[in-house]
C-alpha cells in the first residue's frame, strides 16, 4: 500500500490542462433541459449537495452560476484553496464523484494557469464561502477525450458543484523531543515497528509533530519535490506496521500526492535526514477506513529521506 491521498488521482485528472485519458464515444450528447434547468441542487456550503435530476442536461461552453455567495475575500490568482466538489454526468444523470464521500476532508488546489476551464472559470469572481455550479460539455470541460476515469464520455455533459471552503494555510510541524513520541524498534539495524509504551493515546485534533533523529546534509526538501524515502508507518497501539519499505526498497513519492502530514512534515528537511512524524487524522486519511488503518487514526512514521528532486 502506498501512502497516497484517496482522491489524488481524481483531482489531478480534473485539474491538469492536458489530459491523456482515451475517451469513449458512448455518450450521444444530451438534448434535454438547458443546464441547471435539468436539476435541483439543495444543501449548504460544507455539506454534500443533494442533486435531483429532472431531465438530461444540455450544455456546450463552460458556464458558471453562483448558487450561494460567500462573504469571504475574493479568490485571487495564486491562492491555495480548500474545496469540496461534486461531479455529475448530465447524460446518464448520475453522480460521477464526490469529495464528500467516505468522510473525505476538503482538498487543496492552487488557482493558477494549470487548471482546466471547468475549474479555472469557477473561481473567476468567486468569494471564499461560495458554492458555485459549472455546466459544460465534456469536451469543453476535459478536452476531446472526456474523462473515462469518471465515466464521462466526450459527448456527455458535465455538472460540477464546487464549495470554496476557505483559503488554505499550510500547517507548520511542531518540533518535538523524541521522548514524546513512540520509540522505533530495530532489528538488524532496520526499524520493524514502534513501541508505544509510556505514550498517551493521541487526540483526534492533535498537531503535526516532528522529531529529527539524524539531520542530513543534502538538498533542502520543498513541497513540490519528489522524494525517495524508506519509511515505516503504524497506528497507535497496533502490533506492527500497516506499511513499510525497509524490507523492500526505497519508494519515490511526489509530495503533492501524499497525505498532508508527509507533505508538510518532510518539507524543510534535508536529504539524509531521519525523522519521526506524528500525523493527526486531518493530515492523514481522516474518517476513511483503509486496510489496517481505522477511521480517524493518528499515523506514526519513521522516514529516511534518501534523495529529492
TrEMBL record:
Pfam families: FKBP_C. It catalyses: [protein]-peptidylproline (omega=180) = [protein]-peptidylproline (omega=0). Keywords: Isomerase, Rotamase, Signal. Residues 78-168, 224-309 form the PPIase FKBP-type domain. One of its GO terms (molecular function) is peptidyl-prolyl cis-trans isomerase activity. It is an enzyme of class 5 (isomerase). Residues 1-23 form the signal peptide. SUPFAM superfamilies: FKBP-like. Its EC number is 5.2.1.8. PANTHER family: 39 KDA FK506-BINDING NUCLEAR PROTEIN, FKBP-TYPE PEPTIDYL-PROLYL CIS-TRANS ISOMERASE FKPA. Belongs to the FKBP-type PPIase family. This is Peptidyl-prolyl cis-trans isomerase. It comes from Nocardioides szechwanensis.
Amino acid at each position: 500500500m502506498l501512502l497516497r491521498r484517496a482522491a489524488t488521482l481524481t483531482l489531478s485528472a480534473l485539474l491538469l490542462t492536458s489530459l491523456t485519458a482515451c475517451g469513449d464515444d458512448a455518450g450521444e450528447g444530451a438534448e434535454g433541459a438547458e443546464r441547471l434547468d435539468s436539476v435541483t441542487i439543495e444543501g449548504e456550503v460544507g455539506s454534500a449537495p443533494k442533486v435531483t435530476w429532472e431531465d438530461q442536461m444540455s450544455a456546450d461552453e463552460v458556464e458558471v452560476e453562483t448558487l450561494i455567495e460567500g462573504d469571504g475575500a475574493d479568490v485571487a490568482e495564486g491562492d491555495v484553496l480548500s474545496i469540496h466538489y461534486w461531479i455529475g454526468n448530465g447524460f446518464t444523470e448520475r453522480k460521477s464523484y464526490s469529495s464528500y464521500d467516505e468522510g473525505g476532508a476538503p482538498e487543496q488546489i492552487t488557482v493558477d494557469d494549470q487548471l482546466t476551464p471547468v475549474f479555472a472559470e469557477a473561481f473567476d469572481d468567486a468569494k471564499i464561502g461560495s458554492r458555485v455550479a459549472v455546466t459544460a460539455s465534456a469536451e469543453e470541460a476535459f478536452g476531446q477525450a472526456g474523462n473515462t476515469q469518471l465515466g464521462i464520455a466526450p459527448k456527455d455533459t458535465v455538472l460540477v458543484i464546487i464549495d470554496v471552503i476557505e483559503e488554505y494555510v499550510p500547517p507548520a510541524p511542531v518540533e518535538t523531543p523524541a521522548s514524546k513520541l513512540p520509540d522505533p524498534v530495530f532489528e538488524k539495524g532496520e526499524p520493524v515497528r514502534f513501541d508505544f509504551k509510556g505514550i498517551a493515546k493521541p487526540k483526534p485534533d492533535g498537531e503535526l509533530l516532528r522529531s529529527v533523529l539524524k539531520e542530513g546534509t543534502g538538498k533542502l526538501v520543498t513541497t513540490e519535490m519528489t522524494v525517495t524515502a524508506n519509511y515505516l508507518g503504524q497506528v497507535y497501539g497496533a502490533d506492527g506496521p500497516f506499511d513499510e519499505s525497509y524490507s523492500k526498497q526505497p519508494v519515490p513519492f511526489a509530495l503533492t500526492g501524499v497525505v498532508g502530514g508527509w507533505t508538510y512534515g518532510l518539507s524543510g528537511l534535508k536529504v539524509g535526514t531521519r525523522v519521526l512524524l506524528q500525523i493527526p487524522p486531518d493530515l492523514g486519511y481522516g474518517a476513511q477506513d483503509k486496510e489496517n488503518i481505522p477511521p480517524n487514526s493518528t499515523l506514526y512514521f519513521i522516514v529516511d529521506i534518501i534523495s529529492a528532486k
